[in-house]
Amino acid sequence: MIPAETLVVDTMVTGALLVTMDPQRRVIRDGAVAMAGGKIVAVGPSAELAATVTAREVVDARGFVATPGFVNAHVHLTETLLRNFLPEALPFDEGLNQWVIPLYQGHRPQEQAIAARLAVLAMLKTGTTTFLEAGTLIAFDAVAHALEGTGIRGRIGRWCMDRAFAPGEDQAALTRAALDAFETDLAAWPDDGRRIAAWPLLVGHMTNTAELWQAATAIARERGLRISAHMAPAVGDPEWYLAHTGKRPVQWLADLGVLGDHLSLVHMVHVDESEVALLAQSGTHVVHCPEASLKGGYQATTRGLFPEMGAAGVNIALGTDGGDRHDLMPSARLMAGLWKDARGDTALFPAESALEMLTVNGARAMGLEGQVGMLAVGARADLVLHDARRPEWVPLHNPVQQLVWSADGRGVDSVWVDGHRVVEAGRCTTIDEQSLLAEAQDAAQAVISRSGLPLRMAWPLL
């Protein structure tokens, strides 16, 4: 008979080295996490939980490091079929307008669905349990339905650009259509506790009007939702805003009254100190995608003010951005290293700060602070086991530094989301990996073939 004072739970993971990311940032050498009803109900030393908890399933995690699930705060789900097809040496505007957008628009709904599932597979297998999509879904409903059942938690948005650039376009009609699309998606996929839900996300840059920015902000504030938007990865954004509004982008947004805790601005490389101050004052979040910055030549380390943002108290989260790789862990390593080198200051962005960007900072940017990104009582039961018996984990002295400087997502063994095990022994339990990979290869070939764009390789492909 179970004593009355015993806590009965669904699953208890025991014997792991816990990096909790809780408010005290406890690291527990021999720790246990108990999960019930989709939440964490107990965390502490294994011996303590063994005396007070009875679990229907006990997972022996000796030899593993446990972390919270990671939060990918900016990901393009439907770029995966284009992985490494775009030439490297493309100017930003040419790459976006002549390659990326036409290829996006060339996807059929089922191909976007396959691409999104491939991105989710990559995220789950490398420890990401929560994501914020970039607001660039064209086949929105097909993707949303494709994500159901994968087990991941995500917020998604339809491709939304309402500014009239071509002569003769009806500006008012474009904005009305964007707002109608928001209402349709928010009604069909409400953020009511389900894992996949719609938010009023914007493409950003200079593609959205003041009217849409203000309307989307009103929707977000009234309904407790969030917005994200691309801004200032390259000099083109500030140059456009200065030429057309006389203001830099963040100042323009501030004057519209749309900055705030509900908003995440993505990339934010080409900003000045006055914009950093506005971000800090307003509580606006910044999501940096260091791998995209390096590949795109955004000049983050020579022009970016991320150390200044951090010093000013701006919440910085991390994203993987496009389809090249959705393992978020290398982004933490880049964040911890690039500015040490660029500024000659080894105190900048220590491993602890980088790991916070993967977890609690991302949760805060998504309005999920205290719910995800930490192993703590009351949080969602999202947990990742990293196999510390792999060569990159041995010897193990400082687990936080090991996570940031030595490990990556290939060491992920098991993942739980809301207490459901979605990765076990390195294999996804919710997706037929072999079938999806075959579908993705065929779909990618179809998209590229229809595009008419050439495969540009420096070396001959025989």
From TrEMBL:
Domain of life: Bacteria
Aminodeoxyfutalosine deaminase/Imidazolonepropionase-like composite domain mapped to chain residues: 31-51
Short name of any one Pfam family annotated for the protein: Amidohydro_1
InterPro entries the UniProt entry points to: Amidohydro-rel, Metal-dep_hydrolase_composite, Metal_Hydrolase, MQNX/HUTI_composite_N, MTA/SAH_deaminase
SUPFAM superfamilies referenced in this protein's UniProt entry, alphabetically: Composite domain of metallo-dependent hydrolases, Metallo-dependent hydrolases
Protein keywords: Hydrolase, Metal-binding, Zinc
Domain spans labelled Amidohydrolase-related: 66-422
Keyword Hydrolase part of the UniProt annotation: yes
Stated family: Belongs to the metallo-dependent hydrolases superfamily. ATZ/TRZ family.
Full protein name: Amidohydrolase family protein
UniProt source species: Novosphingobium pokkalii
